Amino acid sequence: MTENNYSEQQPLNQPQIALPNATAVLVLGIVSILLCCCYGGGLVTSIIALVLAGKDTNRYIANPTMYTLGSYSNLKAGKICAIIALVLSLMTIAFYIWFIMLVGMENMNNPEAVREAMEGLFK
Predict the structure, then answer these.
(1) Which residues of 91-123 are buried (b: 16+ CB within 10 A; e: fewer)?
(2) Which of the residues 13, 54, 66, 116 has an alpha carbon 20 to 30 A from that of 80?
(3) pTM
(4) Is residue 60 part of a domain?
(5) Other beta carbons within 10 Å of 23
(6) Are 22 and 75 in contact (CB under 8 A)?
């Protein structure tokens, strides 16, 4: 039976480095939360953040002693932000589709028709 010896993967005298995309994932996750109400604009940035997070997670799992724990924590936080933004963006897009179906495309520029449709919901 062999033991997992991480010193074989990285010599002890080499310093740990940050995950390459950890900061980018964190920034993209935060930006995607800010953009999620802008017609679902956070959808693109959250998907990019999740793809980058997946790649860096695989790097960290393959060799955890090579990377700093702080960068992995940033990666996890960015991933959580991206997941939240993805859900909010999908909900925003679903709301806009529902609203257009309710009011109709031809009535979108008619404020009176929009008001009547909204009043019909709350009666």
Answers:
(1) ebeeeeeeeeeebeeeeeeeeeebeeeeeeeee
(2) 66
(3) 0.79
(4) yes
(5) 14
(6) yes
The 3-state DSSP class for residue 96 equals helix
**Which amino acid type is present at position 49?**
A
- Tracing tokens 């860096």 back to the chain, one arrives at 56
Let me know: does 90 contact 61? Beta carbons within 8 Å.
Answer: no
Q: Which residues are bridge partners to 67 per DSSP?
A: 17
Range of the domain at 37: 16-95
Mean pLDDT in residue range 81-91: 95
Those residues whose C-beta lies under 8 Å from the C-beta of residue 40, and which sit 6 or more positions away, are 89, 90, 92, 93, 96
Q: What pLDDT score was predicted for residue 110?
A: 83
User: Which positions ≥6 away from 48 have C-beta within 8 Å?
Assistant: 28
Token duo for residue 35: 């953009």
Count of structural domains, the chain: 1
Report how far apart, in Å, the C-alpha atoms of 31 and of each of 25, 41, 71, 78, 116 are: 10, 10, 18, 10, 35
Residue 91 domain flag: yes
Q: Tell me whether residue 1 is in a domain.
A: no
